[in-house]
Amino acid sequence: MARYGKEHKAATRQRIIDAAGRRFKKDGIDGSGVATLMADAGLTNGAFYAHFDSKDDLVAAVIGDQLGRQVSELSELPPGRAGLELFVRQYLSRAHRDHPDVGCPSAALLDEVGRCTGATKKAYTAGTKAILDEICSRLAPQDPESARRSALSLFTTLVGSMQLARALSDRKLSNAVIEEGVHSALAILEA
Fold first, then answer.
1. In this structure, is the dihedral angle defined by the CA atoms of residues 55, 61, 64 and 68, taken in order, positive or negative?
2. Dihedral sign for Cα atoms in the order 53, 116, 72, 132
3. How many CB atoms lie within 10 A of CB 116?
4. According to the model, what pLDDT value does residue 191 have?
5. CB-based contact 93:178 (threshold 8 Å)
6. What per-residue confidence (pLDDT) applies to 77?
7. Cα separation of 131 and 124, whole Å?
8. pLDDT for 33-43, tens place per residue?
9. Which residues, including other chains, have CB under 8 Å from residue 30's CB and lie 6 or more apart?
10. Residues of the chain falling short of pLDDT 50
11. 67: number of CA atoms within 13 Å, CB side?
């Protein structure tokens, strides 16, 4: 029996994380069993334990990966407030609302993360701090910590607005929540 190299194992692990990230954000953490997650990755159930100790281990890895990607995408936007305005408009968009599987893990999974294990909460906390740090460094490059309150206000406005917009069955009201969220977020940037 041939053994796969470290690169193959790392690529397979990432494939599982990517597939699980999409599925978790679409169907929820609790609504996604290992068999479904592995099928999404094109693998058998037996391969799961070669990469993760448990589903909780996978959830923590997915949350860390998803938030890390979000930080990376944010850091690639134009510098300063211009990049943050673009981030706000992309985040609070109808496309993001309508496609949670490719969007922010906070807006899709926050309520479930609150009920997860310590490892998942630690991964979420580290990722959130990195997002806040990126926002702070754009708001106040000379003294990023001075912008911590504004960064917290901005991020919570984005996440809360998106969660509310997704929860509403009235599309007109949902669109209004998104629009008001953009106005509120931009007001935070202007303050």
1. negative
2. negative
3. 19
4. 86
5. yes
6. 96
7. 11
8. 999 999 999 99
9. 112
10. 1
11. 26
Q: Which residues contact 44 (CB under 8 A, 6 or more apart)?
A: 38
Q: What pLDDT is attached to residue 1? A: 47
φ/ψ of 51, rounded to 5, equals -120, -25
Closest CA to 36 of 56, 19, 51: 19
Tokens of residue 161, six digits: 């607005």
Rg (CA), the chain: 18
**How many angstroms separate the CA atoms of 65 and 59, rounded?**
10
Residue 129 sits at φ, ψ, to 5 deg, of -60, -40
The Cα-based distances of 156 to 28, 30, 68, 106, 110 in angstroms read 20, 24, 18, 10, 11
| Cα 40 to Cα 19: distance, rounded to the nearest angstrom | 6
| Angle 103-106-111 from CA coordinates, rounded to 5° | 130
CA 94 to chain centre: 17
Tokens found for residue 115: 């009920």
- How much is the pLDDT for 175? 98
Q: Which two tokens stand for residue 140?
A: 């106040």
CATH of domain 55-190: 1.10.357.10
Q: 69-77 long-range CB contacts below 8 Å, 24 or more apart? A: 70/104, 70/105, 70/127, 70/131, 71/127, 71/130, 71/131, 71/134, 74/131, 74/134, 74/135, 75/134
- CA 19 from chain center: how many Å? 14
